[in-house]
Each structure stands twice: as structure tokens, then as C-alpha cells.
Amino acid sequence: MYEYFNMYKCFNYFYTSTMNNKYFDYIICGGGASGILLLKALRQDNYFENQTILIVDKEIKSGNDRTWCYWEKPIGEFDSILSQKWDRAQFSSDTHTSEFDLNPFQYKMLRSGIIYDKFHKQIKNFKKTKFLLAEIKDIISKGTHTEVITSSGSFKSKRVFSSLFDLKPLLNQNKYPVLKQHFLGWFIKTKKPVFDPKKIIFMDFNIPQENETRFIYLLPQNSHEALVEYTLFSKNLLRIEEYENGIKSYLESKGIVDFIIEEKEKGSIPMTCFPFYKLNTPTLLHIGTAGGWTKPSTGFTFMNTRRKIDSLLSFLKTKKPLHVFSFKNRFLFYDLLFIDVLTKYNAQGSNLFARMFQKNHPVDVLRFIDEKSSFLKELKIFISFSFKQQVWFLNAIRRRIF
Ligand SMILES: Cc1cc2nc3c(=O)[nH]c(=O)nc-3n(C[C@H](O)[C@H](O)[C@H](O)COP(=O)(O)OP(=O)(O)OC[C@H]3O[C@@H](n4cnc5c(N)ncnc54)[C@H](O)[C@@H]3O)c2cc1C
Questions:
Q1: Which of 20-34, 95-109, 164-178, 338-352 has the lowest mean pLDDT?
Q2: Same domain, residue pair 390 and 319
Q3: At what angle do helices 330-344 and 375-383 cross, to 10 degrees?
Q4: Ligand 1 within 6 A of CB of 265
Q5: What is the CATH number of the domain that holds 153?
Q6: Is 28 close to ligand 1, i.e. is its CB under 6 Å away?
Q7: Which site in 125, 282, 305, 351 is 20 to 30 Å from 213, CA atoms measured?
Q8: Are residues 358 and 224 in the same domain?
Q9: 226 near 219, Cβ under 8 Å?
Q10: pLDDT higher than threshold 50 for residue 20
């Protein structure tokens, strides 16, 4: 860590002495997933080569503070640094269990530490780029530009991107329900070989639901090691011991009692159709989770972010004001209905997902979540719900339209 500090001090000094230290062509607030993916994309595109970029974070991120998983076709941008990938998956609930081939996709696991390390090495070689280690105190849009006020001074730009997530605007409204995908996971190592390393457990709802939507998500590294997460799609967070007891009971129910916990991770991701874009201004765009780039119905964010950055780069070349950048489509309406229904019938999440996986090819469900399905497949997904469930959705449509 000390070495990093020195590196950044030098780095900051070098650049502040060669360019105006108050104005940048682009300022990226937050050097987490979306911030570093955006910076990397900008620096790799020749169109932006003469533009100055400031990226600000209150910490130099390192280590595995999160695991990013997603599905895509076998050859992908991060393949060389994946920690694991799988071709098969399993879905389980009390009404339906199936094991399926993910073809043409693979489920991929990327640990954040390797991305952070790679980024910190790369940024040294990026020209006209400054990393500032400082706390952002405020971001204020002032007509022609946005000002970023940090613990190390204020900076201005006509193009500011922020991944700083603020829960307040979501809590100060009730038009768009806010669920959370919240979870705690253990990386465990067992004495005996107990896991099938070829398949992930995508969702296992065979745990007490406690009137909510609760499931186990399990990613085996090999037959002895796995990440086991106790996950909820619900309104309120649990106490740490409740997640941990949930993992313990699940493992016990599978006869897994002899293991050590090697690492832990926990998180809470907003699941909402809150119109995050309304927080944008002509000179400020929210990105990542703060920009509503999380898929509301599932919490998946990483690959969504990666894909949205491609659209953002094309958009920036049009030189239009930032608040015009938009990605509204019919899937946002489906997500809105799904979140409305899941909020009202939170104890029914298991049955809703079971019907989707039972009545459709699971790969079609993944394509639907990825927003790459055809309208006919979407209709098929709708009619796969039971009559009672369809009425819930129709009522949700009625409430949203009238
Ligand atoms: C444990 C965990 C596991 C996840 N797993 C998955 C997954 O498997 N698949 C998936 O698709 N998504 C997953 N997500 C969701 C999502 O992909 C991540 O949360 C992702 O990191 C979001 O990127 P971001 O840039 O929006 O936010 P972040 O990565 O959180 O970046 C925000 C940055 O802003 C900085 N910051 C905040 N406040 C300030 C301030 N005042 N001043 C300066 N800097 C500040 C923070 O230090 C941070 O670096 C997971 C999330 C968590 C927490």
C-alpha cells in the first residue's frame, strides 16, 4: 500500500505540473467497476486521445472486495483473467428442479482484485490522465459545467461522470419500489470432495423463504472449494448472523459440515426502476449502479455496465448534452412490472422464477434478462406464469398505465 501511495503522489505531481489542474475535458468520480471500465475505454479510443481526464476515488482499490459474474459467449474481453467459468447450471425450487447446458453461453467469474491491480498498472501509462486520491465532498452542476469539490481541491468539466451512489433520492419517493439484492457469501474449503466443479447452482430456493424471496447461489471452484451465498431479493437487510446461519443450515442439509471459511463477501445492490436519468444534467451523467445500470429484476450490473460504456462512447462523439444519453426500452417496462409484483408478493419469488425456468429453455430466460430476446419469446415467458401470476402482472400494468 505504501508503494502505491508514493506512486500516486509522483503521478499526481507529474500531471498537475503539465496541465491546468482545475479544468479537465472529462472527470470520472469513483474508480470502481464503472469508473475504471469507462476510463479504460476512453483511453483506448483514439478519438479521445487529446482529451484530459481526471479520475477521483477516496481509496486505491485493491483486493477482492467483490466477485463479478456474468454470462456471455465463450470468447470475451476478460477471459484471460477469469478465475473460473462453467458450461452448466442448476435451478432448484420445491416445484421445479433442472440442470441445463448454458450453450451458447458460459457463466464467468471475475474477481475484482485482478481488475483493480491491472487498472492501477495500466493507468501509469495512460497519457493526459490524472488519478486523484481524495474524497469527493460535492458535485454541483452550474449550467455550463459541473464542479467536483474534493478534499484536495475543486475541479471543473463540461463532462462529469459519477458512480457515487446516493440512496436518498430513492428513499424520498414511493412511485418506484426499491428492493435489494442482498447477500453474504463464504468461500469455503471442504476436507472431502463435495462439489460438482462443472456446474453452478444459479438459484436454489429450497431454503426457508420466511415470506420473502431467498435462495442459495453456489459457484464451485473445484470439488473442494466453492463460493456459497445466501441471497435475498427483498426490502430489508438481515443481521450478519442471519445470512451466516442460512449458509450453515444449507451446507448441513447437504451433509457439508467439515469445512473452513477462507474468505467472505457481502453486498447489497438496489433493484428498482427509479428513473436515475433524472439526476443527470447537461454536464453530469451518473454511471454504474448510480446511473441505473443495474438490471432491476436481477441485480446484475457488471456486464450491463461494460455494454453501456460502448454506447456511451458513441454518444460522446455526438457532442450532445449528457442528459440526453438514454437507454429506455421495453425491457425497462418489464422490469418495472416485475419489481412491482415482486414487491407486492415477495413470498412468491420462488414460484415466479420456477415457472420461468420450467416453461422456457433456461438459455431463453438468460437472453431475456440480457435484453436480447424477441417479442415472441417475451410473450412466451409471460404466458409461462400461472393464471394467478398473470393476473398479478396485468394488475401491475393497469396500475402503471391508469
Ligand atoms: C460483493 C458484491 C458482489 C457483486 N457481484 C456482482 C456480480 O456477480 N455480477 C454483477 O453483475 N454485479 C455484481 N455486483 C454489483 C455491481 O457489479 C458492483 O457493485 C459494481 O462494483 C458496481 O460498480 P460501480 O462503479 O457502480 O460502483 P463501485 O464499484 O462501488 O464504485 C464506486 C466507487 O466510488 C468510490 N466512492 C464512493 N464515494 C466516494 C466519495 N465520496 N469520494 C470519492 N470516491 C468515492 C468508491 O470508493 C468506489 O470505488 C456486486 C456487488 C457487490 C457489492
A1: 20-34
A2: no
A3: 10
A4: yes
A5: 3.50.50.60
A6: no
A7: 305
A8: no
A9: yes
A10: no
What is the total count of domains within the chain? 3
Q: Residue written as cell 477516496?
A: 58
Q: Are residues 49 and 137 in the same domain?
A: yes
Type of residue at 324:
V
Handedness of CA 66, 70, 75, 77 (dihedral sign): negative
- CB distance 187 to ligand 1 below 6 Å: no
What residue owns the CA closest to ligand 1's atom 3? 66
**Domain range enclosing 339:** 335-401
CATH code at 213?
A: 3.30.9.10
23 and 162 both lie in a single domain: yes
Asked which of 324, 358, 390 is the last residue of a domain, the reply is: 324
* Whether residues 122 and 183 fall in one domain: no
Average pLDDT, integer, range 341-358 = 97
Whether 300 and 388 share a structural domain: no
| % of the chain with per-residue pLDDT over 90 | 90
* Beta-strand pair 225-234/179-190: antiparallel
Q: Which of 71, 163, 243 to mutate to test the pocket of ligand 1 (most atoms within 8 A of CB)?
A: 163
Q: Which of 210, 206, 205 has its CA nearest to residue 235?
A: 210
Task: Tell how far the Cα of 32 is from the centroid of ligand 1, in angstroms.
Answer: 5
For residues 327 and 233, the model is more confident at 233
- Tens digits of per-residue pLDDT, 116-156? 999 988 898 899 999 999 999 999 999 899 999 999 999 99
Residues 31 and 124 reside in one and the same domain:
yes
- pLDDT, tens digit, 9 for 90 and up, residues 21-52: 589 999 999 999 999 999 999 999 999 999 99
Q: What pLDDT score was predicted for residue 143? A: 86
Q: Is residue 202 part of a domain?
A: yes
